[in-house]
Design goal:
The chain is α/β, with parallel strands linked by helices. The protein contains 17 helices and 14 strands. It has one domain (2-401): TIM Barrel. Helix 2 (21-31) runs antiparallel to helix 17. The longest helix has 32 residues, at 346-377.
Amino acid sequence: MRSRRRSVERSVPSTDLIYSIDDLRVLARRRLPRPIFDYLEGGADAEWSLARNVDAFADYQIVPDVLTDVSSIQTATTIFGQPAAWPLMLSATGLTRMFHGSAEPAVARAAAAQGIPYCLSTMGTTRLEDLAAAVPVPMLFQIYVFKDRGLTREFVSRCREAGYAGLCLTVDTPIAGNRLRDRRSGLSLPPRLTPRSLLDFALHPGWSIPALTGARFDLANVSHRTEALAANPMSLFDFIGRQFDPGLTWRDVEWLASEWNGPLAIKGLMTPEDATRAIRSGASGVIISNHGGRQLDGSPAPIDQVAAVRDALGDGPDVICEGGVRRGSDIVKALALGATACSIGRPYLYGLAAAGEAGVARSLKLLRDEFERTLALAGITGLPTLARRHIRHKPQSYAARQ
């Protein structure tokens, strides 16, 4: 067993040789069994929105200033009332332990080292109390309104007692998206070996050995209330169908805002009208997101909605652009259009899958270096001077780029 563990350790690459988020993606693909990578990478239906989220950033050009002193660049900001060293937060991602045994604590520690917020998912694999105790920095919690309102109320109470700084209510999952990769792989919750996946798991010992010998996989924050999940594996689709509430309305947002009485973001909206309604219903900010292309295929890219949402809300509420960020220059483009910050999921999960906490840290360093380099090359001295005039929309034919 010791020799096998040494071989697994030697398979982890030096992060110094990783130069882009795409490098981390390649390493994650090598390390993860196909069903696990497909869960990380996949989208809904034809995956049009999944691809568009990334490609849409190419439709925006950065218009630079010159002969500006950029020897010192100001990047500090606040996100949902919490200080951030630069305008990025880490999105809530479910089932994080599937990608690496160090799971959510590794991600939270890397975020804390960078001075940026991390949002823990309801579908996470670490108890919210344990994470708050292990990484004593302000964090957000992503919440759903379940059919069992008692479970949602329980989360509010637990987050308050554990000291979470804010809640992010996800509203784009009335039912599960049609994620064909997961259907074809037979991915269950929790993951299990099947005749279809056995060979692929065997060919990826760097993932399989720690997964089989490490901590038990568990949806730590909900398993005590989902007896069927604890007793028998079920498909992701069955779980979502049984627990998520398709009857969610704005009245539930008002109820949650009153119940929580703190910073609340509505995550998963796309239009100025819904953004305005969210603020009227008690939210302090919005996260423009199509769930990483995993729910409604054919929905627009979040970057394409930023300017309209900001114009509708004015200067006050936070507007976060979530989806498709792969380079630091993408963050500059979103901020120029009016975003307060960006939020990422897959980029840091690629890092986690590739090299654990060191991989997450590398993903964040790459993005921060690219972000600051882009500001300097564009002659922008900091966030207060970054403006709409620094961006130009020159859409190309999306079909022509395929």
